[in-house]
């Protein structure tokens, strides 16, 4: 696959490299050299070295393995640089400059020239961008960007593929702030040749990636995007922006009423992709999809140690289209055995407070065949802690998503939650975040990937 | 068997970007949709004769490829409904022919059987070729509901009847299909078939840019297309690929 040269290079050229701190060509070299492979600064008007690496006059002068060029030159020069990359056998390039198709007719023409330079030479060059802030693969210390501070983004199993470079970083830094790891962060920008389809297909084949998170704001290759989402194995979750945009051709009602946002929402539902309404939900839902087995259905069993959060969770889940079925009478009997006189033993199950037998209640609900997904809420209580051992058994025994939401002192949660995460139980720090994550699982269960096979009653947001 | 898309080919050959209403109705009728019985006439006398054959009341509408918004045309004379006798038909037809002649327009008049719109539910059914998504379909409540409330449901086309039924159930106004305060339940399945048909038309024929049936009158037994619009992309004659390239991004 050609985009491999972009996302998995053996060596990197930085074209337009600079030894002046603060310049794009300087920051890009500084980021690139973190990578465990050769990095070549290229700039015909520079001499000497930067970060201990000699400037080269052209990409053709590189002697050694190189697949990826980070192109830090102004827009008008970019097509000729890409043509040189092609001649030098460099198969991938990231183009940071703006001033292409996003910038009017002249820019569109320049982008056409760029694509021609990339595709019409002897060797093709895959282009990420132009008008992008680049990409990160933290596990490889591969920082193909001019942005600063990005080496703090931890490695993990979520691939962020955003139409906007700015939103890609917003997600990456939210992940960093919350200790969530990413396998990759990609800002697609103008999608000259690498679009959603290519990126999704690539990360579907990436061993580090367990879920692909999309940010979409009205790409012109929607059909391809949807077809690719349907074809891949890896769970995909999408954040579709632009609800307030309206159709821009209004010769008829049909034209005026058919907005991109509605089509994306309908299309994602038809093609089996769950959608969310915020960046926070994208990360929360993405972690659940990446961590948990795919649920068989939308039936959620909620077990809560405190009534209030449980009610908030149940409310939010129902609004999101989840079903909270009554538990099997046998399960109810088991629970009433554990907790005689329990306030509410249907669903949600409310134990009233944390207690040593809390784990047994969770286990009874998780083993109930009417339940496809388990959501547990329990405030942290010293001396009791979390039912870690029970959860560990359950994860392997029931093969259903088990999601855990809690609250407690920050230090305590930092210390204890990673244990649950390591078991394959995604954890959340608010009732709503837990509910939103489960809602993403519910949508994934309801939206089959079979063409035109949305089941009756399946929800579609409009 | 005649080619169902003959009106489309004929219009493309003429370099037109839209079909007339009666051509559009021929195209959708060929896909199994019910349209009112009607005749195209060229003179007021012929209009009266047609009305007598069809039975009163009738509707008279201007018929010319260049007139897409018939009810706004020529100060509102382009569409006249509920014409109950020969004099009313003659007057309406004469107004249309006079207005056309004033505008140097070669127009005919479409005389159609009158349909009681109170006896059903007006919906809009449409299909459009989106540059990014390709063929798509929509259904919505007709009249003011679609304009003010934008109560619509969308899908990527083509769609199955089951999916089209599901679209009708997604409408906020869905309960109206099942009858409300004494109004009868209407034929939801017939609306679904119309959605499938318009989606198929746009999906199968690259030159068709848009098909809109507005209103489609859903009745207790079936649905009838009271007006139909077919827009063409005159640059596409064959059925070749017509995808647009990737473009831009707001960062």
TrEMBL record, chain A:
Reactions listed under catalytic activity: acetate + ATP + CoA = acetyl-CoA + ADP + phosphate
Gene3D superfamilies: NAD(P)-binding Rossmann-like Domain, Succinyl-CoA synthetase domains
InterPro entries: CoA-bd, NAD(P)-bd_dom_sf, Succ_CoA_lig_flav_dom, Succinyl-CoA_synth-like
Matching SUPFAM superfamilies: NAD(P)-binding Rossmann-fold domains, Succinyl-CoA synthetase domains
MF GO annotations: acetate-CoA ligase (ADP-forming) activity
EC number of this enzyme: 6.2.1.13
Pfam families for this protein: CoA_binding_2 (PF13380), Succ_CoA_lig (PF13607)
Domain of life: Archaea
Protein name: acetate--CoA ligase (ADP-forming)
Species: Natrialba taiwanensis DSM 12281
Lineage: Archaea, Methanobacteriati, Methanobacteriota, Stenosarchaea group, Halobacteria
TrEMBL record, chain B:
Keyword entries, A-Z: ATP-binding, Ligase, Nucleotide-binding
UniProt catalytic activity: acetate + ATP + CoA = acetyl-CoA + ADP + phosphate
Gene3D superfamilies: ATP-grasp fold, A domain, ATP-grasp fold, B domain
SUPFAM superfamilies for the chain: Glutathione synthetase ATP-binding domain-like (SSF56059)
MF (Gene Ontology): acetate-CoA ligase (ADP-forming) activity; ATP binding; metal ion binding
Organism: Natrialba taiwanensis DSM 12281
Name assigned to this protein: acetate--CoA ligase (ADP-forming)
Pfam families registered for this protein in UniProt: ATP-grasp_5
């Amino acid at each position: 696959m050609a985009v491999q040269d972009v996302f998995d290079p053996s060596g990197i050229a930085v074209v337009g490299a600079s030894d002046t701190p603060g310049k794009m060509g300087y920051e890009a070299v500084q980021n690139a050299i973190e990578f465990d492979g050769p990095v070549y600064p290229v700039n015909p008007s520079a001499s000497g070295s930067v970060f201990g690496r000699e400037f080269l006059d052209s990409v053709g002068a590189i002697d050694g393995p190189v697949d990826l060029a980070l192109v830090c030159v102004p827009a008008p020069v970019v097509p000729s640089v890409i043509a040189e990359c092609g001649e030098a056998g460099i198969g991938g390039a990231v183009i940071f400059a703006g001033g292409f198709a996003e910038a009017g007719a002249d820019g569109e023409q320049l982008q056409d020239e760029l694509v021609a330079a990339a595709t019409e030479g002897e060797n093709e060059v895959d282009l990420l961008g132009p008008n992008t802030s680049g990409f990160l693969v933290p596990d490889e210390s591969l920082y193909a960007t001019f942005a600063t501070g990005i080496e703090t983004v931890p490695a993990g199993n979520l691939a962020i593929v955003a139409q906007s470079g700015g939103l890609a970083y917003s997600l990456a830094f939210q992940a960093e702030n919350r200790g969530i790891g990413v396998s990759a962060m990609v800002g697609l920008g103008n999608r000259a040749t690498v679009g959603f389809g290519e990126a999704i297909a690539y990360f579907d084949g990436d061993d580090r990636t367990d879920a692909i998170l999309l940010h979409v704001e009205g790409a012109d290759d929607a059909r391809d995007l949807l077809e690719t989402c349907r074809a891949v194995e890896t769970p995909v979750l999408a954040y579709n922006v632009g609800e307030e945009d309206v159709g821009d051709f209004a010769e008829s009602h049909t034209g005026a009423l058919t907005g991109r946002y509605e089509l994306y929402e309908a299309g994602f539902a038809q093609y089996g992709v769950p959608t969310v309404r915020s960046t926070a939900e994208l990360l929360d839902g993405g972690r659940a999809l990446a961590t948990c087995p795919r649920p068989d259905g939308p039936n959620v069993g909620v077990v809560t140690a405190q009534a209030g959060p449980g009610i908030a969770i149940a409310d939010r889940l129902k609004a999101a289209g989840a079903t909270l079925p009554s538990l099997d009478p046998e399960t109810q009997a088991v629970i009433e055995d554990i907790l005689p006189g329990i306030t509410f033993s249907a669903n949600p199950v409310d134990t009233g407070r944390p207690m040593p037998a809390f784990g047994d209640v969770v286990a009874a609900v998780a083993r109930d065949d009417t339940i496809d997904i388990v959501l547990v809420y329990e405030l942290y209580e010293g001396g009791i802690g979390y039912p870690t051992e029970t959860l560990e058994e359950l994860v392997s025994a029931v093969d259903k998503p088990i999601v855990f939401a809690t609250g407690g002192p920050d230090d305590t949660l930092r210390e204890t939650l990673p244990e649950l995460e390591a078991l394959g139980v995604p954890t959340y720090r608010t009732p709503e975040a837990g509910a939103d994550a489960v809602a993403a699982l519910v949508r994934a269960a309801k939206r089959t990937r079979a063409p035109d096979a949305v089941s009756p009653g399946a929800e579609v947001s409009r | 068997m005649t080619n169902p898309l003959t009106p489309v080919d004929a219009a493309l050959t003429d370099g037109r970007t839209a079909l007339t209403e009666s051509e559009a109705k021929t195209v959708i009728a060929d896909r199994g949709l019910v349209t009112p019985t009607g005749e195209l006439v060229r003179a007021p006398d012929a209009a009266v004769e047609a009305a007598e054959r069809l039975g009163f009341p009738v509707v008279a509408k201007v018929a010319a490829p260049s007139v897409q918004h018939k009810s706004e045309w020529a100060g509102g004379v382009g569409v006249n409904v509920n014409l109950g006798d020969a004099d009313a038909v003659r007057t309406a037809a004469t107004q249309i022919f006079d207005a056309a002649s004033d505008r140097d327009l070669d127009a005919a008049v479409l005389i159609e059987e009158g349909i009681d719109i109170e006896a059903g539910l007006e919906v809009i059914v449409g299909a459009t070729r989106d540059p990014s998504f390709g063929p798509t379909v929509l259904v919505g409540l007709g009249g003011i509901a679609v304009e003010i409330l934008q109560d619509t449901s969308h899908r990527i086309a083509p769609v199955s009847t089951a999916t089209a039924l599901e679209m009708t159930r997604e409408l906020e106004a869905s309960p109206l299909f099942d009858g409300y305060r004494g109004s009868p339940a209407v034929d939801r399945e017939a609306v679904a078939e119309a959605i499938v048909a318009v989606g198929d038309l746009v999906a199968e024929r690259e030159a068709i840019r848009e098909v809109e049936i507005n209103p489609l009158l859903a009745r207790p037994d079936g649905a009838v297309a009271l007006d139909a619009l077919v827009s063409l992309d005159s640059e596409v004659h064959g059925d070749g690929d017509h995808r647009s390239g990737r473009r831009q991004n707001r960062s």
